[in-house]
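User: I'm curious whether this sequence folds into something compact or stays loose and floppy. Could you predict its structure so I can see for myself?
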Amino acid sequence: MARMEDLPEGEREMLRTLALPEFGTTPFVCGKSLSERRVSIISTAALQRRSDRVFDTGENSYRVIPGNVDPNDVVMSHGSANFDRTGFQQDLNICFPLERLHELAADGVIGSVADFHYSVSGAVSPERNEKTAHEIARLMKREGVDTVLLVPI
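Assistant: Here's the prediction. I'll summarize afterward.
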């Protein structure tokens, strides 16, 4: 990830002037406490198991990653030449924090970790992923997931 001080001065100034949205601190919905929630991950890092088909350029489908997957069995087929994969190669939790979720569940911070998690390609426009999003939501609802950790890459 680029740090502000590493960017050219012109880019830094442009970023400083961008209007950022402000969000209130009151949630727009109420739900059960975090310690009662079943959590699943959606990552846009185009992740899949080694045995799965890699994401093709522009593909708007998804891959299912089991909650008990060996981190060494997860690979990335994100297609951007500008994407730095070194963090992912050192620790899957950078873009798919499954081990951290299991730790939170063991500590009672969250209720449980879903049996299945999902990855899509972030190189696809959200409009093209709408059908995919509905399919993933259907699968999550069937599994009793009530909280999603979205990890945009």
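Summary: The longest strand covers residues 38-43. The chain has one domain: 33-151.
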